[in-house]
UniProtKB/TrEMBL annotation:
Keywords: Membrane, Transmembrane, Transmembrane helix
Top-rank taxon: Bacteria
The name this protein goes by in its record: DUF1523 domain-containing protein
InterPro entries, sorted: Phage_phiNM3_A0EWY4
Transmembrane segments: 150-170
Pfam families associated with the record: DUF1523 (PF07509)
Amino acid sequence: MRYVKWGLIGTVLLSLFAFLHYTLPRTDIVIITGVDIKLEQVSPNSIFWANSEAGTVTADGKLQRDVRFINTTKANGKPRVYRNEDTGWGWPPYFKLDSSNLHTEAQGLISTRDNPQWVAVRAYGWRSEFLSIYPNAVSVWPVEGPDVRIIPWINIVILTLLAAFAIWLWRVWVRFKERRIDPVLEDAAVALDELDDRADAAADKAKGLFGRMVAPFRRK
């Protein structure tokens, strides 16, 4: 039972970590090498898109849609591709409604490694070549160089609030347990002890009665 308990707790914590890792923004320092608008087919991996249900049905019944992309290169030379979609009023609550403006801003910051214009790209989500999913860019702005350090104040504030909420929830649970659950368990334990004592007394009484019944036969 203990393994089941810790297994459930581990599953909940792992799910919470994955949810926060996907949802909270991260900032990368990159060079923008180009921007694209591609016609993408709406497939099962579209659950990671901001508007997975939107698109145009083709003659063969497939759902397709135009998706903006921002192509970048990191300081170590590895490519990094972002999608650029509006989140609207849905989840995650970034309320991004300016993907076309962001497309224009990114286009104006295009540079090369020979003459780099380093930029910070704030985005959320995951990048997986196997699943063809991309993080969604939220904002871009120029920075002085690849070694600029961006302090994630948004994440710090959100995680601090979540930690405070978790501590408050735990204290509420402890107080509820002390006031409601522990007294019931104590009463149940006392009742079980009393029942056990009665059972022992009944067993002793039955043993004595049996002993008196067989005593005459033993004397013979």
